[in-house]
Amino acid sequence: MLYYVTTNPGKIREARQYLGDETITDYDYDYPEIQSESMKAIAAEGARDAYRKLGEPVVVDDSGLFVNGLEGFPGPYSSYVEEKLGIERVWNLVEPLDDRTASFRCVMAYCDGDPFEASPDPVDKDDRAAAAASAGESLEEDEPLAVKLFVGTVRGEIVAPRGDGGFGFDPIFEHDDSTFAELTSEEKNALSHRGRALAKFAEWYETKDS
Predict the structure, then answer these.
(1) CATH architecture of 3-207
(2) I need a labelling partner for 98 at 20 to 30 A (CA). Which of 92, 132, 182, 203 fits?
(3) Annotated catalytic, 114?
């Protein structure tokens, strides 16, 4: 059984479109997020913690909104910023900027306790060392649990809030003339950062034991 570990029901709905109801079980576990500028490190250590908790194959993701005119802010801190400021205030910050372009990024991390061999998105020693150090581990002395990473990115622009669908920053992120909140879940999944990461993961997961 594959556990998609999240407290966000919107993420579960999107994941099931790629992985199916039979191959994914949502597990409402709020794993601790390490403080890091690297979403790869955050997602990797989240997957390790969730695997240690469950002892079963797990996948977690870390997503962020990167606004170019704000030098990439809020980035890895997107969830915290949304909770504390809300999307209206973020739009108010971006509205006066000359550059409102932005990107949504998602890093999906899979861990099943098996040794690391390869990943569709290479995980080099620096990435693993960053995650290990943030978790108080030593890469040289105590090799952390191997994690496979899958990355998805979509570019767009920050606009005034529109639409009633989606979640998070979807109402202020416009791609091809529509905000993510104006799209159906199927339309959003076909082009979103999480959908792109999920597509890579699903393709690999189907064949990993063959």
Answers:
(1) Alpha-Beta Complex (3.90)
(2) 182
(3) no
